[in-house]
Amino acid sequence: MTHDKEAYLQAIAGMMDTMLSVFPEEATLILIDETGVRAYRSSGIDVEVPIGTPRSALAGTISEKAFEQGRTFREERGPERFGVSYVGTAVPLRLAGEVVGVLTSAVLNHRLDAIRGSSESLAASVQEMAATSNGIAAAFGAISGEMGALADKSEALNRDIDGIQSIIGVVQELADTSNLLGLNASIEAAHAGEYGRGFSVVAGEIRRMAAQSRDASRDIREQLGAMQARLKAISADIDRIKRDMGHHAESVMELDEAFEHVASTAGEMLEKFTRQ
Fold it and tell me: pTM of this prediction?
């Protein structure tokens, strides 16, 4: 049995160079038997475990755990000790059902670190963009609310102008009536001859004031009409802006949902790579 065990471990040691070439990243292979480190091969990472290191010096490592418990162990280590991140895997070697050794690999983690870093950066960027889009959506909502208040004020002013137009209409009717009365008074004064001369002056003044009132009413009505037309145009613009704001807010919300989906995906990627 001892001879078979020795031959088996020797065969494994002889294949370590070939095994090392299989790994796409720089790696180290360590072969451990019941006494300690038996063989060591490395293509870049030096884990500082020389040949002959006793098993007692490996207490707590995945290599010793694999030897003691007879099952595979895997762990990821950061760059704190060796300056690089790596993934270690310890596989028990059995002969006739007995654990006679452990083959441990330590593979550099450059790509995984890069992916993890990209995932973290992506998640942070997406969160920042999502916060920005939320702010934009809130701003759109606030502007839309202000536009609504402005539209209400414009509508109220439009109603006030309608009321003023009605009053101007009454004034113009009074001016027309006064003009008619002045005309009748002038006719009667003319019939009265010398006696109606003073009354004729008063009647003429009434007609002049009526004409001024009528002209002023017409001018005011025209100005109010122009103002009302501009207010209606402003109201139409406000309604259009409100609709555009609503569409923009919906687009921002859709964009925010897309950001959340990307952030969730980045988080899942980061969690997945962290577990490995």
Answer: 0.45
